[in-house]
Amino acid sequence: MSQPDMNELLAQAAQMQADLQKAQDEILATTVEGTAGNGLVKVTMTGGAEVKSIEIDPQVVDPEDVETLQDLVLGAFQDGHQKAGDLAQQKLGPLSQGMQGMPGM
C-alpha cells in the first residue's frame, strides 16, 4: 500500500482551509430575518447571529399586554437564529463532508 503524497495532502488541507474561511466570511456577511406574529415583529441579524435591527408593528404595542410583545420579540429572534444556523449548515456542511474523506480526519 503506497503512502499518501504529503505535498498533495498539504495542498488539499490549504484549499479546504481557504474554502472554510470563504464560507465563514459569506455567513457573516449574509443577513437573515426572523419573524413572529405573521411579520408583526421582525429581527434582522447576520449569519453570525449578531442582531442588526428589530422592527415592531405599532399594532402589537399594548401597554396592558407587554408579555405578548416580549413573546413575539423572542419568537422572532429564535426564528432568525434558526435561519442563521441553517445558513451555516448550508455553507459549512459540504466542507465538513469533504474533510471526512481526508486521511487522518
From TrEMBL:
Swiss-Prot/TrEMBL keywords: Coiled coil, Cytoplasm, DNA-binding
Coiled-coil intervals, chain numbering: 6-33
Assembly information from the UniProt record: Homodimer.
Span list, region Disordered: 85-105
Entry protein name: Nucleoid-associated protein H0194_06485
Protein family (similarity comment): Belongs to the YbaB/EbfC family.
HAMAP family in the record: DNA_YbaB_EbfC (MF_00274)
Entry's Gene Ontology molecular function annotations: DNA binding
Origin: domain of life: Bacteria
Localization per record: Cytoplasm, Nucleoid
Cellular component terms per the entry's GO annotation: bacterial nucleoid; cytosol
General function of this protein: Binds to DNA and alters its conformation. May be involved in regulation of gene expression, nucleoid organization and DNA protection.
UniProt cross-references to Pfam families, sorted A to Z: YbaB_DNA_bd
